[in-house]
What does this fold into?
Amino acid sequence: MMGDHGMDRRRFLASAGAAAAVAALGGCARSSSAAGAGTASVSRGAGSSRLPIGFSTLGTPKWTWIQTLDFAAAHGFAAVELRGILDQMDLSKVPEFQSERPTQTKRELADRGLVVPGLGASINLHEQDQTKRAAAMTETRRFIDLASAMGTPYVRVFGNEYPKGMERKAVLEYIGAGLRELGEYGRPRNVSVIIESHGAFTDSPSLLELMRLADSPNVGILWDAHHTFVGGEQPEATVAQLGKYIRHTHLKDSVPSGTDRKYVLTGTGEVPVKRQVAALARTGYKGYYSFEWEKRWHPEIAEPEVAIAQYATVMAGYLRDAGITASASR
It folds into this structure.
């Protein structure tokens, strides 16, 4: 049962056109490990047929772990990216991810043909308060340990701002050092740390400089393609500069709303999501095309039953137009 939402499991799975999405997308498998700087690849076994699409649990703040997995499987997703479950944002404290339960959790994923490509940590590496920074680094190491136990290749972190009074060069060096430290922690655990294009770090030159300063095979980029576009970069230009560092991606659409943006269903706004997909596909990208529907932060936007199912259908067309098919070797 959905509890307060009054929707039983059968209705939950049937919502938002599950049958149509499944018919369009099929079923799949993926390698559960990734080497240092390599991208998370989609392993195509005999009979596998899902496209490399995923979504973040940022979009499903009222769904349980099992409800999330059931919906993903029913709508043909291959991956679920973790950014909190219900009210708990610290994934290391979620009951399903405790040390005594990894076998069951992995089985729940495998039974539905799903993988977890990344965990979303909340750390802001610009933080100058050393007590807060130390606590955030400790939490991120817990995320890396959890990712390692789950066979998950990536942990996402933020830059995220330029503190007042600090020169740009000093901020980049400070964040780069933090990335390098976390990357080195992740290296023996087969986990890479990926900084998201977010906040003040949505321009390619800054992200490239951070990659140079981090200088670690276990540090890469999570390309939030929405943010770089809204920040003024065309997708082809961003990918030309950052492509070799992109390990994971966040996709979403929006329209202007006053001085801000409003998230809308994929393909109905002003963000060139189809071009973003095509640009990334041309690089030989082997990761997932992940939908980040920010329902947790913006409760007024469409319900996940609608938005996530619609993304699956639209993205199937975008990927096939980009030459990515479910039967292709990735």
In short: The beta strands are 53-56, 79-81, 118-124, 154-158, 192-196, 219-224, 246-251, 253-257, 260-264, 289-291. The domain at 3-321 is CATH 3.20.20.150 (TIM Barrel).
